[in-house]
Amino acid sequence: YVLSDFAKADQDWLDDLMRGISDGAAALAAGDGGRFQNAVAARVNPARNSGTEGLATAQDSPAPRAQRPERPAPAPTAFADKLKSLTDRFK
After folding, report:
1. Contact 44, 20 (CB under 8 A)
2. What mean pLDDT is predicted for residues 41-67?
3. pLDDT recorded at residue 29
4. How many domains does the chain contain in total?
5. Most buried residue among 12, 39, 85, 87 by CB atoms closer than 10 A?
6. Do 44 and 52 meet the contact criterion of CB atoms below 8 Å apart?
7. Where in the sequence is the domain holding 6, given as residue range(s)?
8. Could you tell me if 32 and 47 are in contact, meaning their C-beta atoms sit under 8 angstroms apart?
9. pLDDT given at position 39
10. pLDDT-based confidence at residue 74 (cuts at 50, 70, 90)
11. Is residue 65 part of a domain?
């Protein structure tokens, strides 16, 4: 690995960097540094969801709806019922 051809190894990322610089050159000339950096970053590190396969399958099949679990009937909340359960607990 140490004796590999560095020019060939660096060719891919250098090509992406140069294309990003050319994409953002107009923004840099206009004084918009943020847009220039965004153009370079978009070329060097493309978005993870840039593929078309994921979009097609996501649009074709909607996600299944989650079933809500049935809640048990709430315990009586009257004050007398609470006092009775408290006294029963400490008998």
Report:
1. yes
2. 67
3. 93
4. 1
5. 39
6. no
7. 1-50
8. no
9. 93
10. low
11. no
